[in-house]
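Re: weekly structure request thread

Next one in the queue (433 aa):
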Amino acid sequence: MAIAPPRPTDGTPDWLRTAGGYSWRFLVVLLAVVVVVYGALQVKIVLIAVFLALVVTSVLEKLVAWLEKVMPRWLATVLSLILSFAVFGGLLTYVVYSVSQQARGLATQFNDGITQILDWLEHGPLPFTVTSDDIKDWIAEGQRWLISHSGDIAGTVFANVGGVFEVFTIMALSFFTTIFFLASGQKMWIWFLDQIPSRSRLRMHSAAAAGWYTFSGYARGTVIIALIDGILAYVLLTIVGVPLAAPLAVLVFIGAFIPLVGAPAAMIIAAVVALAANGLVPALIVTIGIAGIGQLEGHVLQPLIMGRQVSLHPVVVALGVTAGTFLGGLLGAVVAIPILAVTWAVYSRLRTVDPPMTAPLPTVKEIVEPELAQAATQRAAINAERRLNLLAARKERREAEARRKVEEAERKAEEIERKSDPTPEDVRDAEDS
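Done, posted below.
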């Protein structure tokens, strides 16, 4: 029989001792999180490249698996990458061509539109007026600010040259990693499982499979939704007659990868272009169309395409995007939701689930006033007893009906046996019974 350790006699209350124990554990976990985040920031280029490689792998995985049925795996990988580059290059070429074709008439169109906007600001129904002199003063002030800060701006530009090199490094590393993920990802994962104890392999594989299922579903769903948003935006802008419809649709496609704010921000830019180039009425039509596309995405496309693969509450999405933006800027906003979704999927797979609550929770008033709580408990017991009685009565009625049918069938069978020459109708009735 185990002997309980002696209780401390220093006079510290039990609640304070318990709170202290949980506090230092929380600090250890917080320190571990800080160390992990700091280490991730030091190798962010590698992590970004791996993240992009996983996104491309999740999108092309089905295509590679389909092509593998008729060709080797490595050839299916190469062909899938070539097709994806062809699609991307064709889209980029089309955008550049459409911009070059419309560039001549855009300057005049934008100048006329901006003149109309300034005239409306000066003579419109607004409680304040903005004259052309005010615009000139603002432009002159901006020029003075640029001249005074030209040294800082030049330093920032030269400092960002390294950022351009980082972009090329990320793209090259991501492409290299994608090739191996598509060609031999299964072998790489089996090798990793071989490095951990055998007792933990199945549990690790189950959690990783749940995370990959969620991540791949999110990545493919986001790409499909972004593509649909871009197509709908292109159709809308083309019908209204907004210039640069193709580049703006591509901007909407890219913005759809940023949850909550990306696609609306891109579509607002499209509305501003419509206002400057076509006037107020087309801009209002574009704005209404933007709202309709947003409703279609939130209430139809996301539940239909992603389904149960990514089921995060909108509050969690909003908080995650905000936190990701503060921690990692635009990239943090992009990766926040898949990280949260994968973390929740892995946790859900590893945790031990207790039975869900079925009884209604007591209200605050019932908790504060014990008499009300007791009455609520009694009502719950009475309701439970009533439900049990109803179920028992329904079961008894079903059993009585079944006994009646059996007795009726036996009676008809006995009548047929008593008759020397039963009629076909009697036989049919007996068989039906």
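The mean pLDDT is 78. The longest helix spans residues 73-123.
Next request, please.
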